[in-house]
Amino acid sequence: AQTVTQSQPEMSVQEAETVTLSCTYDTSESDYYLFWYKQPPSRQMILVIRQEAYKQQNATENRFSVNFQKAAKSFSLKISDSQLGDAAMYFCAYRGSSNTGKLIFGQGTTLQVKP
Amino acid sequence: NAGVTQTPKFQVLKTGQSMTLQCAQDMNHNSMYWYRQDPGMGLRLIYYSASEGTTDKGEVPNGYNVSRLNKREFSLRLESAAPSQTSVYFCASSDGQGTSYEQYFGPGTRLTVT
Question: If you average pLDDT over every residue of chain A, what do you get?
Answer without folding.
Answer: 94
